[in-house]
Amino acid sequence: MKISAVVVAAGRGLRAGGDQPKQWQPLAGRTSTFFALRAFARHPDIGPVVLVLHPDDLEADLAPEMPAVEVVAGGATRSASVRAGLEALEGRADLVLIHDAARPCVSRAVIDGVIAALQSAPAATPALPVVDALWRGEDGQVAGSVTRDGLYRAQTPQGFHLPDILRAHRAHPEGAADDVELARRVGLRVAITPGSEDNLKITLPDDLARADRILRDRDGY
């Protein structure tokens, strides 16, 4: 089966600091988007790779030496941006991996785990089990405990059979928290595959520093 990827970089989040969205902040000499794209562009079994950008970024020289990928304009929400990437791939691939550009440290092992699961499941996503104690808080105080049994921290890439996830997006244009939620709305079973602590999502300034260390320490950087 032919495998494609959609990397979403159309957001405008600034909580990571600086005057640019987090996916374009300097990171290990390049950007988060560069490393997220490279993980899929280098994979021997994946192609084409589609990068979804904010319309304001289409003409900008945001990152030198970017991997060779296709570029499409995103929408007003993450779900709309993902759908734009999926529409660009319709009829050109069997499977699709949807990844956030703000996760630059995704590994080949995490990607391969999702691909392997899609050979027998309609959808798959990497995740990590919650291991910390969970509390409910009220007015700045602990108000109770919450069981962590069966709870996971979701990651990307989230993988799907392309016709199925495109159908889910078309059926629910209002979107959802992520693509797994949309898949489940149309009845798809989603397998959980091994995630990685290194596969962090850049949200705050400390995340940039941690991702920088991970990328610089990796072989082949």
TrEMBL record:
PROSITE patterns named among the record's database cross-references: ISPD
Keywords: Isoprene biosynthesis, Nucleotidyltransferase, Transferase
UniProt keyword Transferase present: yes
Single GO MF descriptor: 2-C-methyl-D-erythritol 4-phosphate cytidylyltransferase activity
Lineage: superkingdom: Bacteria
CDD domains: CDP-ME_synthetase
Pathway info: Isoprenoid biosynthesis; isopentenyl diphosphate biosynthesis via DXP pathway; isopentenyl diphosphate from 1-deoxy-D-xylulose 5-phosphate: step 2/6
EC code(s) of this entry: 2.7.7.60
Site note Positions MEP for the nucleophilic attack, residues: R148, K201
Catalytic activity annotation: 2-C-methyl-D-erythritol 4-phosphate + CTP + H(+) = 4-CDP-2-C-methyl-D-erythritol + diphosphate
Site keyed Transition state stabilizer: positions: R15, K22
Matching Pfam families: IspD
Record-linked NCBIfam families: ispD (TIGR00453)
Family statement: Belongs to the IspD/TarI cytidylyltransferase family. IspD subfamily.
Function comment: Catalyzes the formation of 4-diphosphocytidyl-2-C-methyl-D-erythritol from CTP and 2-C-methyl-D-erythritol 4-phosphate (MEP).
Protein name in the entry: 2-C-methyl-D-erythritol 4-phosphate cytidylyltransferase
